[in-house]
Design brief:
The structure is a single chain. This protein is mostly helical. The relative contact order is 0.06.
């Protein structure tokens, strides 16, 4: 019975490691996706707004 409890506790520890690794991977991946998306959107908006906001030379 002691060995069953030990193997169960080892499995739980390994499961926690797997879950924390997955959470870290998903967090980093989603942050890179959001960063890339905002860079792309800001670049497009900058290109659209450049023409109307340019000062004309007198």
């Amino acid at each position: 019975m002691d060995t069953d409890i030990r193997t169960f506790s080892q499995n739980v520890k390994e499961d926690k490691k797997v879950v924390s690794t997955k959470i870290a991977f998903y967090l980093v991946t989603s942050l890179f996706f959001m960063w890339g998306l905002q860079v792309s959107v800001i670049h497009q908006l900058k290109c659209l707004c450049d023409k109307p906001f340019k000062m004309s030379c007198f």
